[in-house]
## 1
Amino acid sequence: MPAESSRLRSMNETRDRILDVALDVLGDNPDAGMGDIATAAGVVRRTVYGHFPSRLDLIRTLTERAVAEMTDVLAEVNAAAAEADATWVAFIARIWPVTHRYRVLLALRRGEYGEAIHSLLGPVDELLADLVRRGQDSSRFARHLPAGTLSQVAYGAVFAIATSDLPNENPDPRAATITSLLMLGVPETRAIALLDDQP
Amino acid sequence: MPAESSRLRSMNETRDRILDVALDVLGDNPDAGMGDIATAAGVVRRTVYGHFPSRLDLIRTLTERAVAEMTDVLAEVNAAAAEADATWVAFIARIWPVTHRYRVLLALRRGEYGEAIHSLLGPVDELLADLVRRGQDSSRFARHLPAGTLSQVAYGAVFAIATSDLPNENPDPRAATITSLLMLGVPETRAIALLDDQP
DNA sequence: ATGTCAATGCACACTGGTGTGCAGTGTGAT
DNA sequence: ATCACACTGCACACCAGTGTGCATTGACAT
């Protein structure tokens, strides 16, 4: 099956390394240039343009990866067919590392490439809103905000906590989950009970 | 008292107009240039540099204004000597329009001028954290997060709702306040009661 | 009437990033 | 042995924004 095995593989390795490193570099500084990414990937700027014709292409590819991963997680936790609030807890637990990895996308959402990112992220937003709506329909979640807004704000809070770099402590996924559950209207006692059921 | 009355006044008018317009323009697009601001203010780019030697100077002046307004509001609501949760409600009500006005600063917090803005906004963050801490000490607020983080995340949620531009609806300060109270650990019933006490 | 000075309208130099072109080099494929 | 081609290294053009210099205009102050 691998026709041009070694040749093609090492090329894909370079490409993947650029993508991985780009997530890192842009995560630290969303305004980093193609040069910074290239250097960090141990490659020359020109080479990056060999794989991605433009900066937008790079960002788009990154976003597509993120959408794929997030959609997978959402599909899996939804497959468990549990209550919406339990599903939310499972979702946050599974999405936690992904959120940190792709933190740059949220930062870039407002900006030059916001339009492209937003449209690609649309489907994920939909799925998230669906989950919250399901919770509202079964009265697990409150209705003080429409599902679309509530899902965004709740996930935004998790994201904010996940990427907050406090001087001494490191972000606490448990506290973040509780916070998001609270704002979804889940009582604190139930929130803690849900968390204690997690493996 | 006005020595060079007309002269100096019209100069201050121009300066103030630039500042006001800058808030507007940068609020819509944080990456707008000095030229865009100048044009929107009905003035030439060179004139803006006459009042503010650099872009950073402009941003700093804007930030100083914001800090002054926010500090005033915080001082006033704290003077009422009510419970921390009631104070929070009053604070959100009073800060709501200000939040929208200075929305650009939050957007610019991550970016080139983040350092300068952050240091100027520091005192406000302190006051906010103090309020939340007070609430935690009197058991009005939950302790799932340290006061510093919780205050930031709660205010961040309010900000997110205040600046969310939904297709048809406009942001609802009441829903935003409830959301923030929930994540602070205030039970929904109490949150609604607090809001109904507001004028 | 005369001077002052904010605002104007150019000019310019500088910076920092993007994206392209092309000749050269080394390593796998044939 | 030779071809293909990913990567290099340097060149360039281009753009958009920043900040400065300076001569000019016009309203206000004296």
## 2
Amino acid sequence: MEPTTVRNKIMGQIQHMLDHAIIRNRRFLDDEQLIKAEQLAVLEEIFNANVRDVEIRELSSHFAPVLRHDHPVHLAIWGKTGTGKTLTVSYFLNLLAQMCAEKNVALRYKHLDLSTPMPCFRALNDLACLLNASKRYKKGISLEELMLRIESALAHYTGYLVLFVDEVDNLRRDKDTFMTFLVRRLPQRIPAKLILVFVSNRLDWPDNLDPRVRSFLKLNEVVFKPYDAVDLQRILNIRVEKALHQEAVEAGVIEKVAALASRDHGDARQAVALLAKSAYLAEKAGSRISLEIVDHACSEIEQDKYVTMIRTAPRQLQAAMAAVIQCVSNRSREKGETGEVYHLYSTCCHQAGLRPLTRRAFGDMLNELDMYSLLQSHVVSRGRYGRTREISVDLPDELTGRIYEEIKRSLEM
DNA sequence: TGTCCACAGGAAATACGGGGGT
DNA sequence: ACCCCCGTATTTCCTGTGGACA
């Protein structure tokens, strides 16, 4: 091909992409990439659209006594993931801190983020870091020492101290030690007026708490309901304004994304992800975002979930899945049965340098894969030819292929 | 009707691994 | 550094099962 032809072709393609640009500011489709101020700006708009109104009002009435120098009780907040608990509370506490500053009420708030599971030690350590009371330790310092440092850091502070403990149920071991410290010991040892705010996504969270702590803990409760379709539409609209060229979004797209998201989770983050994927696909195809593209994006996200699930699964589980896929596809047969699949599984393990588990454990793995709906299995009895499980894979062929490739890569086979 | 296949799946035993205490 | 403890993963052992077949 003539060099000029190639050049023209490439330039034409680039021009075409520019003409059909859909995404104006990619960063606004992914919260991770936004800096704090921008996040707050987005939030502000969301709240201005009357989303989370009820919850904010409850928070307000809970904290109102602070401005009258009263001491409110502690607060527990429940809601599923992606319902905006963390963001709403941070936003609210920011505002509250501002208001208090204006009215000369001393108030500090700290956000203790337990979004990854951690034992009591790390939680205390993080808290100490937040209060500038200590540096980060891996070990080598006793819990008592940490507690003392926290206490001495606060020894001269007499105002309000709001401690926002995010995702409390991630406290692994010794959670009672931590809770006892926060609920019983700390308030007695420091002059500050302590207000604890616990966020959790499980309703039954206080149930497995030390009864002594629980009875001591006076709680007010706020529940965050999942977003409904209308809320999600508002949230999405804001994102569209910031991130996309509006004319590239066909009518009904937002409604559709919102409906899909509210139907099966009500998680705002996932709704935005779906919008982002749609925009991305549309841009790649050089078209506007249409309803079909949303469907397409939805199924891709769905598929991606399966692939990441298998990618992050333990290797044994991967080997088991590989065996099932081999059995179902290679022999052009619909169903596999336990004995045969187990045999294939042993071979897989051998190839991947794993020690095969026993049949018993293998059966449990099949159940697990079934739960993730990576396969379907049910037991049948074949009379005097014994009982077995009929195992089938009910996923699009293309997806099965992707999963298999993923496993091969991961197991190096 | 009894037998027996080829596995399911429960319970208890055991191995493993990581973290805490000394 | 060492040992102990505890929660989890896996194994071992075992009983149960539906229906074809004789």
## 3
Amino acid sequence: MSLAVAEDVDDELWSAVGDPTRRRMLDLLLASGPGTATSLSDQLPVTRQAVAKHLQVLDHAGLVHGTTAGRERRYQVDEAQLARAVAQLASVGASWEARLQRIKRIAEAIQRDREV
Amino acid sequence: MSLAVAEDVDDELWSAVGDPTRRRMLDLLLASGPGTATSLSDQLPVTRQAVAKHLQVLDHAGLVHGTTAGRERRYQVDEAQLARAVAQLASVGASWEARLQRIKRIAEAIQRDREV
DNA sequence: CTCATACGCAACCAAAGGTTGCAGGAGGAT
DNA sequence: ATCCTCCTGCAACCTTTGGTTGCGTATGAG
């Protein structure tokens, strides 16, 4: 049985998604479609500049993708990359859950031994 | 259909689990059983003090639970709380995936309209 | 008793999230 | 063409957080 830790996970994706503000930005972009730093910032408790920095991070992680249109710059979610991120979350979760199961089995085995 | 954003998530749990070092620590504690700041630190690329701080964070989030034994202080994973964290990861992932699916369906509908 | 070991506390440093302030470019109104 | 507005980018600065080194202290081994 492979005990390899599931931390072959892309740390940049994780930390991109690890920030609560960025998670909410992704939520908003998914819920309302493409948006700009300004449009996002007035749905969030932070300033436009903070949002802009987060958009850079998300862009660099490939989770969003921005296009300039006139004086606006609108960003939209890269669906494939977000799907990848979701898969990695699931992977880490599954790994932990597997270990918890294993511990539980061992605990039960000890319990049985005591009852003999 | 409820469009409520899945950010009713406990931010403390998320950020506890959001840090890569803390994730590795949880991995180690799950893999090798209870451990001390020292025992963890020499399996990690950071100092004992850094590990100690992370243990405080994890403890405060309820993910681990430490007991003093002589001159050692050993920590072990709180399985129930970690299970909760895993559930929250899964919840956010599911929420995003649902939205991605919805977007995909809409895109296909538009595609069909064009083909008429 | 002495020595090694594990710990906690404090000072310090760099990076990240956040803020304010300002200069510049694109569009609409006069 | 001009003026005004709006959205953007850049720079300076503050605070929190992950990380380090250094030190004092307590506990177990010899």
## 4
Amino acid sequence: MTGIDQKTDKPARRKASKEVRRGQLIEATITSIAARGFAATTMADVADGAGLSRGIVNFHFESKEKLLAETLRFMSAAYEANWREALRTAAPGPAQKLWALVKSDFDRSVCNQRTIAAWFALRVEAQSRPTYRRISRRPDDAFLGAIVDLCRDLIADGGYDADAGKLAAGLDAMLEGMWLSILMDPDRMSRRRGLASVSQYLTCVFPRHFSNEGPLDTN
Amino acid sequence: MTGIDQKTDKPARRKASKEVRRGQLIEATITSIAARGFAATTMADVADGAGLSRGIVNFHFESKEKLLAETLRFMSAAYEANWREALRTAAPGPAQKLWALVKSDFDRSVCNQRTIAAWFALRVEAQSRPTYRRISRRPDDAFLGAIVDLCRDLIADGGYDADAGKLAAGLDAMLEGMWLSILMDPDRMSRRRGLASVSQYLTCVFPRHFSNEGPLDTN
Amino acid sequence: MTGIDQKTDKPARRKASKEVRRGQLIEATITSIAARGFAATTMADVADGAGLSRGIVNFHFESKEKLLAETLRFMSAAYEANWREALRTAAPGPAQKLWALVKSDFDRSVCNQRTIAAWFALRVEAQSRPTYRRISRRPDDAFLGAIVDLCRDLIADGGYDADAGKLAAGLDAMLEGMWLSILMDPDRMSRRRGLASVSQYLTCVFPRHFSNEGPLDTN
Amino acid sequence: MTGIDQKTDKPARRKASKEVRRGQLIEATITSIAARGFAATTMADVADGAGLSRGIVNFHFESKEKLLAETLRFMSAAYEANWREALRTAAPGPAQKLWALVKSDFDRSVCNQRTIAAWFALRVEAQSRPTYRRISRRPDDAFLGAIVDLCRDLIADGGYDADAGKLAAGLDAMLEGMWLSILMDPDRMSRRRGLASVSQYLTCVFPRHFSNEGPLDTN
DNA sequence: GATGAATGAGCCTTCATTCAT
DNA sequence: GATGAATGAAGGCTCATTCAT
């Protein structure tokens, strides 16, 4: 009845619509949280930001709680996809891979004011709600695990006298701390400077694998 | 009846000095934010937490906005006082001083779940409100400045090939990132582990000044 | 079930047009102010009076302030419409017109306890708020202007020795004073008595145009 | 002990103090109502206005309700005292007396922005509270009664064809309406103009007793 | 007498959610 | 699918009143 076969457009559009709408609303949520903060973001802000009607969010996400959970899930997934893809396409060798991982953390796609602002707002607030904690914990574990493995490989390969776990935890903290600096103090910290700082540390810690320009061609 | 003669303790009941009440309320605010999150903290929570009546907060702080600002100011001041005192009482020599600074960041007084939770909740949310930003920006600048100076001294003294600014920014980020890890993932990160991780980095970066047990006696 | 086919009456239940709701709420406001006074009228009173929920007033008027301003505007407009219509439909001749104007001031539609009570409550309180003052000032000027013109015509036509401006101002004051008397002392003053009193004055002042029964047929 | 006989000051001062304080507070109430309006006047405003502490008003008047009632009573009494004194000191003859009465209504002591503003605010709001109504009704009755008597005398004396009751009610209304005009529209109406307008009416109505300059010397 | 910290009821307002259309 | 008027619970805030000092 509703034009099933008219080209292959209509049914597809209908079908897509649902996902498209959810996507629009999640984007609007991120934008609002980045601009107004978590506490000040209302359902109306989200609906308005998406250019849709007021009741629409409850229609697609049932409740604000669930919209927020989905938004956090979406951001976690995007973050994870980004570093996994960087790892997958990196040149072989632990130095290359660690470098790829570190650089991916400063990719404009994940590392920009809007995303970082929403990211911390959501995570810090989620802190108080057990349900949310689980959403962002999982991907973090995997990220840290990858760093530990690479540090271990580098230590073995370079004969460094250091503990892989400690180095990995420190690097992980430094990366997250850099995001915070970029968010809180954009005048002083930037994606470029953050990367340079981390690079400096890698050069000091793994001198046989890194220079300030990045990984050395050691394989 | 309630301790009639014990010195002159009585005023605790109905009339307490304005400063005492404000202190109580700020503590209750921190506790509530740590437990419930920023968005879920209400004036009633704070009043109840302090064991006082509902109208009391507006009486002493005029508005929620101002209570929050005062709380942030209070926490910033406490944080700054802590590291300044550590620096002041440290043994002479840049390594000793940097170590004192780093250790102070993991003092139980400033580095504990309650304080960290409120700290990030307040700062991240403050992010959206220009007025609040200024409150926490100032002390941060001073802290980073102190680290830069010490890094410069160490580099000069040890003849290291590194950039003081980059190292300082990285260390600063790592310290803040550690707090985040302790907050978000207390099962994996702790004050002790955080300090050990940072120590590992100092050992790698300034090998002539630090071992994994701390600063070497170089002066 | 609730009148399924009776024309298309249904929308009255859940969704009423914005204008209809605003009208309902303004009426409820007038009623409440008349009954309880300005200071004692709460948003809840208005909502209850309209048989609607609590949040409804802010939904349609944004704030109490704006509801009150709209109510004042509504009453001013109704008052002005009333005398303008009376003037428009009056028989020709200044006496007939002045009489129509005076009589219109005692029309039951504008001159009744409920309306007068709200009218003065709103105007007197509005006195302290510059924004409101403007709302009721404009129509008053027009009313007074109309009286001045008619007095001038009568003086010219009857050869009276009097000043039109003074007479107009006095008549205007008397009319408003009558409303106050009707409001404050209904046992002594009524619409009928008020009109009779004014009529007596017109008879004394414009004896060639008025008798105690009203305007004389002079054209 | 408290210096009973030291001159005769202290005891007197103590004694007076009570009445003095009440007077101060009533004056502050009038000032605040005139400036802020009835609804916006708080106990704190009154206390601050009198330069006294917060709890003081309840101390001297028990409740806000009673403070307001006393203020209204005070103003009614002052108003009545003013016209009674005018009547008492007027030259003999009904025209002289009526003129004295009318003039007294435009005396600066009772007819000024501050007093009029508080007067109407209090009376109009009192309208909704039966207790208050009685306070201001009584003096009004007396005032109107005095006017009726004088009108009757003038009519008898001048052989006018008019009804004393109607004329009195109209004059009373006009006088009160003039106050309203002076309050609401000070740019157009003033004490001087108000008196001139009323004078014009008296001249028209009682031509054998009044000219535009006031009462004629007819006795 | 006087003070002002403290109380708590009640107000205005916001906002997530519902639901008739 | 989508809209947006309507709901009502909950929050921040004001303010008359109380009372220990």
